[in-house]
Design goal:
Length: 185
Amino acid sequence: MKNNYVNKFDKQVSTFGIREQLAVVFGIILAVVIYFMFFYVDKTPYGYAEIPEEVITYLSGSGNYYASDYNSGKMMVLYMLQRDRKYNYPKRFQDALDAVQKVSDLEEIYNFHELQPYRNNILFEGEKGEKILKGEKALRKVCRSFCVVNPKKKALYFYFQPKDRDAQYLQENLEKLEFWGAKLN
């Protein structure tokens, strides 16, 4: 013996139909898409990646911060400066990077270039500032924290976050990029 209130409640609970199920599925899909678009950070420790066309355009653009090094025919080593707020190199890796830049054999193959630091006044430059900011964000997304760019192959080798253990292999790794077109005597 049920009263009217319980009967009414039973009918409401059992009416979870196709609309509600589709709304739940759509909500889950939307949440996943938003996560990957805005919050996901690829933390692959190191590897190769193709350079997107927008980044190639940014790197090779005339009057650009990177253009002369990118168009020189050499590969580029891009790294962060200590004053960059996302700088996170351990001291041993920074010391190894400083030492590698002085090796004459590597100077023939690589241009060493720091990633352009973000400036507070860049947005006051109008459309030019917006292009720079957009290009830098795209470059840092593909380069992560440290990368070696090969303009001929339109590809790069990246480190997400260099560690102390990477310091001892930095020069050796740069010397062994023969398959990438670099060959030391």
